[in-house]
Design a protein that fits this description.
The structure is a single chain. The protein is of the alpha/beta class. It is 44% helix and 13% strand. The chain has a seven-stranded parallel beta sheet, with helices on both faces. Strand 1, helix 1 and strand 2 form a beta-alpha-beta unit. Helix 1 packs across helix 9 and helix 4 packs parallel to helix 6. The longest helix has 25 residues. The structure holds nicotinamide-adenine-dinucleotide. Nicotinamide-adenine-dinucleotide (NAD) binds next to helix 1 and helix 4.
């Protein structure tokens, strides 16, 4: 028996990176997957997003685990299209037990357009709310909602990131902070129905979002056009453990735990998979 045997999970941002890793691990542990991704670029975000063939590859990986994948190319900002995709996916796969609101952008350009703030908030905050809200009517006791936050949520709340990543960076930090607050408050609302709501907060993760020119520039404001090597010299600054980043699979293990019945009384948590980044940045407050 897998740890999420017979469950159905919807994952946004599933075409690559952490979303693909979550899809693969949940499928390996017995879940069928509704995989959602925008599969096209967003203009204010200065690195490419996934492509349709990436989403196809995620479906192939799910099927390789002997499970079923239902894929839909949808923008999480479009609540009506998202609702239609989830409804069809639930009809195809029979039920919905797990919601993983993972899709995100990081349009971190210093001096970038104000549209970057709007897009970061619309994707990273409103996109999370949209996915959860269109999924809720399908969820029953035992269901689990998991939102992807970031170490940036803790840093933004303390104003300790020390980075000037432009309007998009400000929007990103704000969105992730509000996702944390939302998870906290929604958990209380849904607890009487035995529906759980938690957040995972990764530090740097080894994905295309991290390995992007705007991210390199945010980590190396001292250089023009910094390379991956330049950025990797400073990536570890965020973490207490001396690593530049973690792997998508490290976050997937946390998602699997929160999705599974092993976590049946775990709700309202802000689970940091951050190599000690938050404890490094935030002094102990006594609670
Ligand atoms: N990579 C990091 O260092 C890092 C650190 C902390 C948190 N995060 C968060 O982890 C999550 C996953 O990011 P990742 O690291 O896998 O990056 P990624 O860029 O590899 O994956 C993000 C996925 O989301 C999709 N997406 C973007 N906008 C979308 C939209 N409007 N609608 C639907 N899909 C959309 C992209 O096409 C892509 O497939 C994000 O929420 C991100 O903010 C990432």
């Amino acid at each position: 028996m897998g740890r999420v045997e017979g469950k159905v999970a919807v994952i946004s941002g599933a075409a690559r990176g952490q979303g693909r890793s979550h899809a693969r691990l949940l499928a390996a542990e017995g879940a069928n997957i509704i995989a959602i991704d925008v599969c096209e670029d967003i203009a204010s975000n200065d690195y490419p997003l996934a492509r349709p063939e990436d989403l196809d590859e995620t479906a192939r990986l799910v099927e390789k685990e002997g499970r079923t994948a239902y894929t839909a190319i949808v923008d999480v900002r479009d609540r009506a299209a998202l609702a239609a995709a989830i409804d069809t996916g639930v009809t195809e796969l029979g039920r919905l037990d797990v919601v993983v609101a993972n899709a995100g952008i990081a349009p971190l350009t210093k001096g970038g357009p104000r549209q970057a703030f709007i897009d970061a908030v619309d994707v990273d905050l409103v996109g999370v709310l949209n996915l959860v809200h269109v999924s809720l009517k399908h969820l029953k006791a035992g269901a689990s909602i998991i939102a992807t936050g970031s170490l940036a949520a803790s840093l933004a709340s303390q104003n300790t990131s020390g980075m000037d990543a432009g309007p998009g960076g400000a929007g990103y930090g704000f969105a992730k902070q509000v996702v944390s607050h939302y998870v906290n408050n929604l958990a209380l609302q849904l607890a009487p129905e035995f529906i759980r709501v938690n957040a995972v907060h990764p530090t740097n993760v080894n994905t295309a979002m991290l390995h992007s020119p705007p991210m390199y520039a945010a980590f190396r404001p001292d250089l023009d056009n910094p390379t991956r090597e330049d950025a990797e010299a400073t990536f570890p600054i965020l973490n207490a453990m001396p690593v530049p980043y973690i792997e998508p699979e490290d976050v997937s293990e946390a998602v699997l735990y929160l999705a599974s019945d092993a976590a049946r009384y775990v709700t309202g948590q802000q689970l940091r998979i951050d190599a000690g980044g938050a404890v490094k940045a935030i002094p102990w407050s006594g609670s």
